[in-house]
Amino acid sequence: MATATTRVSGAGYPGAEDVFVEITDPQTGKTFFANIATGECCWERPRHARVKPKDESGIEWWELFDDHHKLPYYYNTKTGETEWLRPTVGTIIPLTAIQNSSIGKRVSVLVQQASIANSFAGTSLLGAASLAADSPMRYMSNSPPQRSIPEEPVYPRPTTRSGSHPDISTTQQYSPLASPNMRQSNSSKNLSQSPPISASGNRTSLTQSSSMHSLRDAAARARTYGISTPVLNPEAAASMSPLNSPINAKIQSSPELQSPINEGKALPKDLKAQLSQFRIEGFATKYFSEHRKGIFFRRRVPVEKMLVYQKEPLKAPLMVLNKDLHKDALKCFKLIQKIMKSDPAAAVTDTHTLLEKGIAHGGLRDEIYVQICKQLKNNPDGESVYRGWILISVVTIAFPPSKNFEDYLKNFVQQHQGSTAGKVAMVVQHCWKKLLRICKTGPRGKTPTTAEIQRAQEAPFTQSLFGEPLEDIMKTELEKNPHASLPRILPFLADAIIHLNGCRAEGIFRVPGDADAVTELRMRVEKGDYSVMGISDPNVPSSLLKLWLRDLADPLIPSEFYSSCIQVGQEESRIPLSQSGPAALRIISSLPEINQRVVNYMINFLRVIAEPQNQPFTKMTISNLAMVFAPNFLRCPSDNPTVIFESTKFEQAFLRILISYVQEK
Questions:
Q1: What pLDDT shows up at residue 127?
Q2: Where is the composition biased (Polar residues) (predicted)?
């Protein structure tokens, strides 16, 4: 390292240790004063010490040290050049002399970074200072830095051959540790002498030549604007967006490709069955554990024989599991055996324990499904088979199979749809609907309660108010009340929110209600008890209302109208409400009749919540309500996360238009 006694070039003063020099802070542009001999730095001009004015040339050099060659070199803060030979013009500031102070530590690091940046792109100190300003070492420019910085950073090496030391010129040319600009300089000479030859034997193409010019232009821009200055190119960013890709545009513009099932181009059924069986066999080979029997366990048990009903306990998990889950897997099998021998009403506690293990340990979920399937296959007891399917109908409200196991389980259920009769057939059909649903929605975060398990056991035979198509819910309602125009649950929950003073509750629809209270109210409504007795929090019915809308089997605004809604939302900022409002209402008028009635009821109800006199209490404006309810009205049909994210703001805009226009009408 350069020593602290390095002189200040051109000082010409006796007693140099008492002389301060002016130094420009490369980050803030402010001037501070440093004693080169003692390392003392201060922002204010010293009153009792001599201050050497800046050199007339305005040139400032920083003395650094090359650890590789054990030689000092000098960095020009204006031009970004580095020299091996000691300059004769300008002020020379040894780096280590001022590193003991907080100001010096930070400024020295900035200069080192500038020199490093210069070795790669020839940048100016302005660019390097900007780069350093974005680093964790930056500080507020109004006050000196407070945090310490390492005192021995890695030093860069000179980037120019000007004044090269005669003993190291050859070393720099061939050494792998030589600076990048030096290697680039040497390789550029070779390129100018002999153009590169491609694999086909031709000289460098025009495209390659233009690329080299682009690199040189980029280096020039870096020297002018600095490394950290971004080059904004909105057109390039738009063209690279996944939303503008040709494939995505084709999907969005083609109704055929948007449809989940294209009957005209579907594979033959027998071919689809063969492909499905191939995937299932491949899954079994990869994920099912190896079971052996016989003397010394030499004979491997085939998968088709392993997945067959058995009376005795399981000795090893059916699937490849983490060893920590082996005991739990065997306990799960005992629970399944016990549940399939007992009446469903008496097996609620064991079912809850089984679901609890699946919720807590994701690795056990496929194992639980496989164990149930095993006990259903070739089971001689018809009642046990019925209870096994009831168990699957309960498990499918708690967690789905993994994506790897999903096809296997779906194939298993489909195989039994046409081979069963009576009440078992009803349960199998119900399991199929719930399986498709849970595979889309994902696992629950909390184990279902005893009441929820009991309701799931009854669900195959009694129509539920949750998770079913709106048309089916309305049909059930008309059987009870032929004059009904809406499912009873909708006005019941809306009236409950108003009755419990929800129009004065801060964050209504945004603040969730107590989960247990919401579940209790849901079970109460499912049994036909429409009362809020014992409930005082309006967030409980408000949470259940959102759950009912969100849990509909099909979105409230069907998927075929989704793109039209998004288009109206996109035009919100470009056209007045007097035009976008009627456009939104035209879409609503095209919905199925029951969907129209529910949408209109909800919009008028949200209008009441959003009245100006309520907003000071609820803090829920029209925009806030649109943000909360947009996912309950619309569901993006795409699986692309980018498309879903980009569409969210237009969903909210559409609902905002709908509420605002109805409010002004």
A1: 37
A2: 159-213
How crowded is residue 302: how many other Cβ atoms within 10 Å of its Cβ? Answer: 10
- Site of tokens 């003063």: 13
Q: What is the pLDDT of residue 118?
A: 56
In angstroms, rounded to a whole number, what is the distance separating the alpha carbons of residues 636 and 375? 39
CATH number, domain containing residue 605: 1.10.555.10
Domain boundary among 550, 573, 608: 550
Are residues 221 and 82 located together in one domain of the fold?
yes
Secondary structure, 3-state, 265-331: HCCCHHHHHHHHHHHHHHHHHHHECCCEECHHHCEECCHHHHCCCCCCCCCCCCECCCHHHHHHHHH
State the Cα–Cα distance between residues 156 and 116, nearest whole angstrom.
5
If one counts every other C-beta atom within 10 angstroms of the C-beta of residue 121, the result is 21
| pLDDT 10s digits, 60-84 | 787 877 777 777 888 887 777 788 8
Angle between helices 382-395 and 326-339 in degrees, nearest 10: 130
Under 8 Å between Cβ of 159 and 119: yes
- Token code pair at residue 92: 């020379």
Q: Does residue 616 share a domain with residue 538?
A: no
Does residue 314 share a domain with residue 221?
Answer: no
Q: How many residues does the chain have?
A: 665
